[in-house]
Design goal:
The protein is of the alpha+beta class. The protein has helices spanning 3-28, 58-64, and strands spanning 93-99, 102-107, 110-112, 117-118, 121-126, 130-135, 138-143.
Length: 149
């Protein structure tokens, strides 16, 4: 065996040993996942049902592109519903989405959260398969087309 082949063989063996040591070290010395003790978490007094503050207006979002609404087409104008123009039979629930503890619903191609208004109705609750809307003392359960009973 020539000297060049011996040196190359030695380098390959050395690199193999280094790789093996690193692999064994990473397996043996794993750090366990750390969990937060719930008793040590500061109580903020929030229940998770409060609406999150809106940072940008829809007009500011249009300037920035898609803004906080990934479903809205920035080239389509923002539609404003006239008060009193929405009737229950004209409302259509397209879907419900959740992020952490906050739900969002797509009603008439508009993303709404609890407390938002859609026409004359106020979004009371967003649940996993339906939305409850309120207008005065009238409560309406809105389900998507596939979930109708």
């Amino acid at each position: 065996m020539s000297k060049k082949v011996s040196v190359e063989f030695g380098i390959v063996i050395l690199l193999g040993l280094i790789l093996t040591i690193l692999l064994v070290k990473s397996i043996l010395f794993r750090h366990p996942a750390t969990f937060v003790n719930p008793s040590k978490v500061e109580d903020t007094g929030l229940t998770g049902r409060e609406p999150l503050p809106l940072v940008l207006s829809e007009k500011e979002e249009v300037k920035l592109g898609w803004g906080m609404d990934p479903f809205r087409n920035p080239e389509s104008p923002i539609r404003e519903e006239k008060a009193g123009s929405t009737e229950a039979r004209n409302l259509s629930l397209s879907g419900v989405s959740w992020y952490q503890d906050r739900g969002a619903a797509i009603i008439n191609n508009q993303i709404v959260h609890e407390g938002d208004r859609i026409g004359d109705f106020t979004v009371q609750y967003i649940l996993k398969d339906h939305v409850l809307l309120q207008k005065g003392d009238q409560t309406i359960e809105l389900r998507s087309q596939g979930d109708r009973k």
